[in-house]
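step: validate -> pass
step: tokenize input -> pass
step: predict -> running
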Amino acid sequence: MELKTIDWGTIPYPQAWEEQTTWFDALIKAKLEGEAYTNRIILCEHPPVYTLGRSGKEGNMLLRPEQLERMGATLFHIDRGGDITFHGPGQLVCYPIINLEEFSLGLKEYVHLLEEAVIRVCASYGITAGRVEKATGVWLEGDTRRARKICAIGVRCSHYVSMHGLALNVNTDLRYFSYINPCGFVDKGVTSIQQELGHEIPMQEVKEKLNHELTSLLRTLASQLPKEASSDD
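step: predict -> pass
step: emit ->
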């Protein structure tokens, strides 16, 4: 099992989408043809951008195109699940491009694993995070009126190969979320690690924590499988 972490730094969303798609298609091709491949975990930040998933509603974007342009932000319709979300500076985005079958993961279990990695990162900062039923992502006080999302998750899978992933608000300017109904919700808030702690957090530190938790969870799953099931062959 080969698992490689790549840090793109800050990268425009269209470029990241194109690179992801290239690696995603290549991994599917290699898998179907029985060739060697590399599972990748990509970490990055984006300039301000809103992305609308294939099940999203246009009405959850509250700004007109000319308003978006004045803000220096853009809107992309993309092929992941979920509704609308924001990506921007201070937000850690993670794109795992992996063969889920190599880790004996279905789509539901994979999303649960992404959530678990973020929950553990939050816990390392003394933040209690968890899940909300029928609401993908990671939440704080999810069963109360103060429910607020700290991490959005939206993935695409084909032939059990994943792309897209998660977006964890670290030092994100949360004002950008006021221009949308985040993930389609009109009755829940958005937060960040910085917002909860009251001070900025080094992004590199959070990258290392998330990468550690995610790779540890994946390697643990791989180690529990019979050798022939976890082989790249």
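step: describe -> The first strand starts at residue 3 and ends at 10.
step: cleanup -> pass
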